[in-house]
Amino acid sequence: MxxxxxxxxxxxxxxxxxxxxNINKISRTIKDLSGLFSDEKAFAKMDNSTLVYEVESYFPxxxxxxxxxxxxxxxxxxxxxxxxxxxxxxxxxxxxxRAEYYWGIEGEGLLLLMDENRNTRGELIIPGSLHxxxxxxAHRVVNTGKTLxxxxxxxxxxxxxxxxxxAKTGFSKRVLDVQGKPQLV
Length: 185
Ligand code: M6P
Ligand code: ZN
Description:
The chain is mostly beta strands and 185 residues long. It has one domain (11-184): Jelly Rolls, CATH 2.60.120. Helix content is 6%, strand content 43%. The protein has helices spanning 40-45, 164-169, and strands at 11-14, 17-20, 23-29, 51-58, 69-76, 80-81, 84-85, 100-106, 109-114, 120-125, 130-133, 138-143, 149-156, 175-178, 181-184. The strands form 5 sheets. The chain has a 6-stranded antiparallel sheet, with no helix packed on it. Strand 6 (80-81) and strand 7 form a beta hairpin. It is globular and about 50 Å long. The site of zinc ion has 5 residues, from loops.
């Protein structure tokens, strides 16, 4: 070790996971995602405790701090509700002009990006893909594969999460399994 090195940082990335003392972990199960999926009958048949995704985050400064950065890795399980693939809730930032980076780590999926005019496009997430999410853009990730989709994220610590807009009007497009293939419809 270089002599001036005191300690390695107290957080590390190992494989697909964040490790360290101060990692915040949240789980989203079916019961946290009501109203998101189009097939309500299929949704009602799901086991409420089925895990859809987990987020490991590192918050080095208090939420809302201007000038800081947060870091996270999300693990989105494969699965479908009716014909619709498992996805994250999706959000806008409370301070709307705040941007974010996502990048693919493992698995395959789509990043849905919806602009202020409700135009939605998809970017393919694969290991190593890098995605710049500009301010004012709603973002959601869909696991279109058959394996775990893990992706990284880095966002400003004062960005905040606005879920209400998405809960009310959703994205203008959904990703469905159409004859075995994912399609943006
Ligand atoms: C990424 C970041 C987080 C976000 C998480 C899950 O890690 O964008 O800020 O919370 O994905 O997405 P959502 O909050 O939309 O469920
Ligand atoms: Zn975000």
